[in-house]
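User: Run a structure prediction on this.
Assistant: Running it now.
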Amino acid sequence: MNNRHIRTSAAAAAVVLAATGLTACNSSQGGGGTAKGAVSGGVFVKAISSDPGHLNPMTGVSLAAREMVGYAYESLVYSTPDGTFVPWLATEWKAGEKKITYTLHDGITCSDGKPFTAQSAADNINYHADPDHATFYYGPQIHKGLSAKAEGNTLTVTSKVNDPFLLANTGTVEMVCQAGLDDPDALKTTTDGTGLFALTASTPGSVYTYTKRKGYAWGPEGVTSETPGLPDTLEIRVVTDESTAANLLLSGEVNAAVITGTDRTRLSAAQLKTVGVRNPVGEMLFNERRERPTSDPLVRKALVTALDRKEIGDVVSDGSATESKSLVVKNPLLCVAGGPKWTLPATDPAKAAALLDQAGWKLGPGGKRAKDGKPLTIKFIYDAATPAHASAAELVQQTWDKLGVTTQLSANDANAWSEQLFQTFDWDTGFVQIAPGGPVTVSSFFDGATPDKGGNNFMFVDNPGYKALVKQASSASADETCALWQQAEAELIERTDVFPLADNEMRTFLSGVELQQPNFVAPTTIRMLG
């Protein structure tokens, strides 16, 4: 399965098409520990399926770009695969609901040898908080009501409004050094961060090489440049063919690669270990513009009630379906614990038919439904490069055909996704996923401005109950906010603004290495094995 991103602003990077998942389900050993059989030095080779385009951490939005950012740039805190925050550039912090104070490590340096200080961190936060810069983090994570200042090695970030997620929002920003802030365009082809590794060579479309820095001493869980098992070099190769990547894993030429298709069987048979991330593979969204039949909640409810979630889920997940736990699927998994607070409807074709009758779509000649002489036609979109999507979409079509619905299947490439969802709005539903790390980002899609007004609500959702709960949750205390956000999520499910048909696990296969993968490979956790 290939990864597709679409966007109207940097915040829209959370929209993930073609079954991308970004939340940790398990991890191999890493962190500050030493893996059994670890061997220091050598080259760690990671295969990625597409070129990042550019390497600017402040504006890159593709999955490949965000993965590459993590090899050279670091944040104030490290989010472990289970969503726990531990110190990184900051040694400690004290968080309130309108202010958070970080104490930074002494002696942090950038890849150019210059110091990285609390003032550097403040400059980063203030840069992202300026809407004119339109950075990757601006919006739900870093908003214009935030400001930062430094005194010595202490960073203080203040919000004009209540923000129960100040730690997650500010602590996970990948920090750029001063030279990069002064000349952001240079970051497209070079790196300027505090990372354990720095870019030393690149051939776009082919390979990117990062070299371990000397004197690094501020990694999470005590990692330094002398930690046993670390490689000397990272080699990130662009390998577009998944079977080729699988062959390279088996030969030992590649140490890590995401494999989602049939090659998983032979890799599992070879007993290769994996790390996994949650993947909202079967999530369905709906176009609720007035002229579309899916603007009617009765139609949306009817369509999903007719579906056999087990049958279609098995197909769309390639036989590895799991129940969705939350619309939040990206680390740090804010407000996921204790959920979900919603229940998906049981499969009931008779009830689905009754709902369509109630909505005015009556069966006519040939067993097709129509209203006011207009046939009930649903345009179902899915990713052209994902075999499981096509097969599952055909099952959906067969199901709705029995219901009297005319279903038009539309296989999209990356350009078509952007055009249909954000420009022409010519779609009704399909396998379209978002992959946020917290409920505030979810709200930017379901309660934010629509694309014609510069926003990310490409579904044109207008859910009064959800809006009210979002307003309550946004001003609630840290102890109360998650319960309200989970109620808000349930409101979306109840009104069928979204239908999480099935999740699965997207696995990165490993050969000769152990590591952690909170969202992407964490370079300080890589341990080469003998």
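Residues 384 and 411 are 5 Å apart (CA to CA).
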